[in-house]
Structure formats: structure tokens, C-alpha cells
Design goal:
heterodimer, A: about 110 residues, mainly beta, six-stranded mixed beta sheet, three-stranded antiparallel beta sheet, 1 helix, 9 strands, about 5% helix, about 45% strand, globular, B: about 130 residues, four-stranded antiparallel beta sheet, about 55% strand
């Protein structure tokens, strides 16, 4: 079981907005940087959000990130069928001394 | 544009040694840490460890006793060795470049991973 908790699945209609949560302790999320990854079937994971809320070059502004003391959120607006994928959050766990990932959230665009 | 290409044996028996190599194309190894991350079937991603061009490495404590990473700067490659594999090591293994690091008193860690290799499926079966 992951130390970062994500909902197993979320769904929404094309064009709509969805948010994916990532919950952890203050020692993981509160004091460290959170990143988000998109994993399309058969492809390599892709960095969507780094440093809690920064989009790397080439990532559309439909994707956004935010963070509070013990949770982070990925937001996706204007949903497209091509957004159907697994999404993972990640952060450094100081108590374990390792990078930890969430269990992943499967996004369905119905 | 940096591109990571990885390869290695895909089918292992229990107790054998997993060996994977990741070639970095389009960029020098210098200045970055290069991580290995795996995705077991039906589970989430797991960070295995990282190494930089000078051989400085950090490992996930849960795997540290079985993991070795190495670097070949002449070939611009990094490698992963995981010994005494079991069925629990069955996964898709990825190499990835660590982006900027967060520095704190006792060390540093990668703030994100980008890009990733294409992945290598490793199956451990009797």
C-alpha cells in the first residue's frame, strides 16, 4: 500500500473538468515537492507537473497542480478522450529516505 | 532532445540476477542523476534508486540490499543490477532522468523525473 493515497479511478465527460487528489503526511507532501505523471497504455510515463504546480515546456495549460499541507491535486480541464490514462503523484518521503509514488488513478473520459 | 533507450533480459528464474542498461542519447550524463523506477502489474510505481555520472548513488531502503547501479561515461549508459529476484520483482522497469534536485542538510533528492525510457518488461517465473 502506497504512502501517498490516490483514488483508484475518476471519470468525467469530454470537455468537463476532473481533479485527482494525492494525500499523504505533512512530512511527505508538506515539506517537499510534488510531481505528477501521465501514463498512457504502452507508453513511457510523462511528466505533467513538477514542483507542485509548474508545467514543463510543452504541457498544455489544461493541466494544473496545487498543494496544501498534506495533499496535492491535479486538475485537468477540457477533457479529451486522449487523456484516458493512469495518473501518478510522487514526492520525497524524508522518514523513509526515498521517493514515493501514489498508487495511481485511472481516468476514464466517458 | 534527450532520449533514453533501455534493454535487458526479459525472463528470469527465481534467484537469478536482473540486469538492465539504459543508453542516454542526445545529452551527457553529467549534471544529472539517472533513476530506475518500476511498475509491478496491478500496483503503483516504485522508485528503485539513482546514480550520477561520478557513480554517486542512492537507493530505496526496501531494495538497497539487492540493488547495484553503475555508470559507463564512455558509452553514456547507466545500468541496474537486482540480485536474487523473486516473482515480486516482476514489473516493467524504467530508467528516467532526474530533474532539479532539492537540497537539504543531509542530502538531496530528485524533484521530478523527465524523460523516461520506453520500459523493459521483466518477468520472474519458475
Amino acid at each position: 500500500q502506497s504512502v501517498l493515497t490516490q483514488p483508484p479511478s475518476v471519470s468525467a465527460a469530454p470537455g468537463q473538468k476532473v481533479t485527482i487528489s494525492c494525500s499523504g503526511s505533512d512530512s511527505i507532501i508538506g515539506n517537499n515537492y510534488v510531481s505528477w505523471y501521465q501514463h498512457l497504455p504502452g507508453a513511457a510515463p510523462k511528466l505533467l507537473i513538477e514542483d507542485n504546480d509548474a508545467r514543463p515546456s510543452g504541457i498544455p495549460d489544461r493541466f494544473s497542480g496545487s498543494k496544501s499541507a498534506t495533499s496535492a491535486t491535479l486538475g485537468i480541464t477540457g477533457l479529451q478522450t486522449g487523456d484516458e490514462a493512469d495518473y501518478y503523484c510522487a514526492a520525497w518521503d524524508r522518514s523513509l529516505g526515498t521517493v514515493v509514488f501514489g498508487g495511481g488513478t485511472k481516468l476514464s473520459v466517458l | 532532445q534527450v532520449h533514453l533507450q533501455q534493454w535487458g533480459a526479459g525472463l528470469l528464474r527465481p534467484s537469478e540476477t536482473l540486469s538492465l542498461t539504459c543508453a542516454v542519447n542526445g545529452e551527457s550524463l553529467v549534471g544529472y542523476y539517472w533513476s530506475w523506477i518500476r511498475l509491478p502489474p496491478g500496483k503503483g510505481l516504485e522508485w528503485i534508486g539513482e546514480i550520477n555520472h561520478s557513480g554517486s548513488s542512492n537507493y530505496n531502503p526496501s531494495l538497497k540490499s539487492r540493488v547495484t547501479t553503475s555508470v559507463d561515461t564512455s558509452k553514456n549508459q547507466v545500468s541496474l543490477i537486482l540480485s536474487s529476484v523473486t516473482a515480486a520483482d516482476t514489473a516493467v522497469y524504467y530508467c528516467a532522468r532526474g530533474t532539479n534536485r532539492h537540497h537539504f542538510a543531509s542530502g538531496s533528492y530528485p524533484r521530478a523525473f523527465d524523460p523516461w525510457g520506453q520500459g523493459s518488461l521483466v518477468t520472474v517465473s519458475p
